């Protein structure tokens, strides 16, 4: 057991940049050298024929099509639009070749164009990816989480990080706060402030980085000029940038960790935190009755504190979803729409965009010879000497092995050729190694090798530090995140939701040595991936919701997050699972991608009281003593045991795959919208199922009114053990709220890798 994910950058996910999509399309058009430009346009000159700026920009770009006369060998496609601005700026960002840029300058309305480096990209871009913005929605409604206290249970904190400064924060601490800033070894209590309001006993000094990183995602303050070796530069901020942080360091000594974590949860409750963020895994193979973490998190729920935890990653935590407690929010990881690219410019004028693996300090590399060995063994084994130039790696070993091998040497540069798709390669490889290195597609590699063989002294130049946003599709569920159901409670959907967990930039202890291949170095920020990174995003959203709706219970907050989650990606198609490139099932992504602004106003919530959770425990044949160890009272009431928990999801658990099954559910929803409302049921049917909802219409006359309904799901059975899934959506009449609950027919033997 241990922290879910952590420093290793093994968990890399499928991302398709708009660039690379454009490049892979139809022709090998990627081989025109294109650079990202921010183009300013005079919108008053927009021809009337266009209905909006976006179509105008697209049309302007399209008109440059097929005019790359220099590259007959490589048919050219259109330069690609990365994104269009309409509010803060007027203009767009797109990739252009020099020729296209010249042509663009003749276009109507053109004002100016600057290279990508001249505009600011936002660090910890994930708040923008989640549509958090200062003008409307959850940020202003919650005052950015002001006076909500987030307890982070992790490896401690690096208090000197700028993410934990208290600029702009009220010095008056929330009244409910009863905790302390406990002094410890290399942790002077003067290091706490109005942002970092408390740390636990012992020394909370973070010597691993994980805690600093997760705390800054959940509630880091604004920091201008953050970046990781030039990537992702911009203003770093947490999801709840004005929330207060209390940090509880838990021990790393094996075998003691669960006790420490349970103690930390206990302390956090006593201190008065509102939300607990816990990117760590439960002990494996411990029955629930003896699981301290289960009991501590149950206690948090009973005290009105929502615990947000990570689903866990394959490799670190085994194959079974870990934190599947019904009383916590379980978060899995997906990609964002941001990627870090590099360019390999061949001396013949062609240019290839790759996926950067580079960390270092050189933004523009000079032209170097391309080193290619026909027998293809070079990157598979020890290098006897370091070739002067950029090594072309297309060995016989899996790419991850080649990368690991090359990372041991101080090479001048390397280009790794993906065997299948870059996406599937990148899943299993370290994405940052200490050399100017990139992965290119096998399609682009053909042109590269053609060039290399066409000349005696092939030369190329690498350029890094290109951060690209607007990548589609996104999100995609990480292949490395653990899948549900939770074996503890197979009838409760887990994970609950998907949140950004891929290549997220966040704070890092500046004096913590990082080791990558041959190199050790230091950085104030780091880019990591995993469900550990997803969890604090959801914790931050929960903190904002708590700020906006202090009266909501932990179950209410979770319900709002789940029923407003989006099952579609940014191309409006079902979110894909990187494990198989098919539509992700709720056992992979829960209800879908969190949507903070929608969660602010969910319409209806599926609430649950601590007694409802007791009823669930009572249905599990535990002894009175065992149940008492959760409720901390011998007087718990087991008169109405029920495994049909008021959860915003429906899971039909099959005992075998062939026999038809009928399962009934009863749910109660609370109207949290203002005033009267009517909702009608709409069902998308899981394959092979019928779903009956009674009544099909719910009429609420006032706020906080409750209504119950019944659902009967029948599944005819199938042989293949496939997961079938759908949804029940309560659609507001004469309004635009939609309260969505996933339906899953969970196979008896669910797929494992
Ligand atoms: C295409 O390129 C040629 C040669 O550079 C140039 O004269 C012409 O104006 C361009 N066409 C358009 C539509 O911009
Ligand atoms: C803590 O820091 C303050 C201010 O920097 C200093 O005066 C004090 O001596 C320090 N205390 C310890 C125990 O180091
Ligand atoms: C980056 O390069 C500069 C100048 O060569 C050097 O002073 C600095 O230490 C380097 N930084 C890192 C992190 O390697
Ligand atoms: C490349 O992919 C093929 C087909 O999937 C596989 O047989 C081969 O082992 C792979 N080669 C490497 C170097 O991974
Ligand atoms: C509880 O015990 C009863 C009787 O022994 C059994 O029928 C039932 O399946 C058990 N329930 C669970 C959840 O184990
Ligand atoms: C236990 O719960 C039931 C149902 O809610 C209630 O009727 C009963 O009075 C409770 N018993 C005790 C001892 O509180
Ligand atoms: C739902 O089911 C319960 C128990 O089966 C029943 O008592 C109740 O009347 C049903 N409600 C509706 C609206 O059908």
Automatic annotation (TrEMBL):
InterPro entries: Peptidase_S8/S53_dom, Peptidase_S8/S53_dom_sf, Peptidase_S8_Ser-AS, Peptidase_S8_subtilisin-rel, Peptidases_S8_3, S8pro/Inhibitor_I9, S8pro/Inhibitor_I9_sf, SBT. One of its GO terms (cellular component) is extracellular region. Its main location: secreted. Keywords: Hydrolase, Protease, Secreted, Serine protease, Signal. GO terms for molecular function: serine-type endopeptidase activity. It is found in: Secreted. Residues 145-569 form the Peptidase S8/S53 domain. GO terms for biological process: proteolysis. This is Subtilisin-like protease. The lineage of its organism: Eukaryota, Viridiplantae, Streptophyta, Embryophyta, Tracheophyta.
